[in-house]
Amino acid sequence: MVNPVYTTLTRQSGLLREMQVVAHNVANLSTAGYRREGVIFTEYVRNLGNTEELLSMAAANARQTVQTQGTLNQTGGTLDLAIEGDGFFVVETQQGDRLTRNGHFATNAEGEMVTSDGYRLLDDAGAPLFIPAEAHSITIGRDGTVSTEDQPLGQIGLMRPEDPSQLRRARGTLLEPTGGLLPADDAILHQGFLEESNVNPISEMARMIEIQRAYEMGQKFLEREDERVRAVIQTLGR
Fold this sequence. Notes:
The chain is α+β, with helices and mostly antiparallel strands. It has 2 domains: 3-67 and 199-236, no CATH class; 72-195, no CATH class. It is 26% helix and 33% strand. It is built from 2 helices and 18 strands. It has helices spanning 3-27, 201-236, and strands spanning 37-47, 54-65, 72-74, 81-84, 88-93, 96-100, 106-107, 113-114, 120-121, 139-140, 145-147, 152-155, 158-161, 167-171, 174-177, 181-183, 188-191, 193-195. Strands 5, 6, 9, 13 and 16 form a 5-stranded antiparallel β-sheet that branches. The protein has a 3-stranded antiparallel β-sheet with strand order 10-11-12, with no helix packed on it. Strands 1-2 form a two-stranded antiparallel ribbon. Helix 1 packs antiparallel against helix 2 (201-236).
């Protein structure tokens, strides 16, 4: 197999991965707190051995989570929270602490604030937040302080990654921080709001068309190369 074919195959593989990411973005247009993902193409060069020629190939193994602010949508829910600015909620999972911008919370049987999947929301000290069953009025301040009509209960922990490029998609709207975390002191909480997905449907559909056209061009090249090789083999076999 000639070198251009190897190069094209790696490019095709990368385009397929990017198409999967774009399709996942489109599927989450209506998911609260969803952060759009993008694929980063990189080049890697392989030494072919005895010759001085090098083979350049494409890799699309890296992904980037786009941190653009989503639109804040008013819901009126007491435990619906939206973050304005940098920062993430910290939730406790069986695989470790995860970050999310999805602020749709409820309380479980123990009175702890949890996500729709049952993961406990953590306060600024890394402990679960508990709301008494007898509490009639719950107020959550712009700094994350949770209070009832009687007293403050705690403060929601808002964190941001030291390096946003180190965030890795874990599941749904959950992100795994692979680096250090810092307090998101400038973030503002809005009670009764949810942040919408930051996916732009028009740009995603346009990108999907571009990927499809690029993949078709690569496929046509591979088909022509296959026909050329077949013709050479038939000619030499006569």
